Amino acid sequence: METKNKLPHGGQILANALVRQGVDIAFGVPGESFLPLLDGLVDHSNDFRFITCRQEGGAAYMAEAYAKLTGKPGVVMVTRGPGASNAMVGIHTAFQDSSPLVLLVGQVGTDMVEREAFQEIDYRRLYSECSKWVGSIDRVDRIDEFVSHAFHIAQSGRKGPVVLALPEDILYQCALEKPTAAAHIVQPGLDRTIFNDAMTAFVNASRPMILAGGGNWNASACSALSAWARREQLPLATSFRSQDLIDNQDACYAGDLGIGANPLLVKRIQEADVLLVIGERLGEMTTAGYSILSAPEAATKLIHVLSSPDELGRVYRPEFAINCSPENFCTALSDVRMGKQYDPEAMSSAHTQYLSFSAPINVKGDLQLAQIMASLPASIPRNAILTNGAGNFATWVHRFYPYGGFKSQLAPANGSMGYGLPAAIAAKIVDPSRVVIAVCGDGDFMMNCQELATASRYQAFPIILLVNNNMLGTIRMHQEREFSQRVIGTGLTNPDFIKFADSFGMPAYRVAKTEEFAPAFSKALDSKNGALIELVLDQEVISPSKLLSQLGK
Question: What are the boundaries of each domain within the chain?
Answer without folding.
Answer: 10-172, 192-356, 358-550
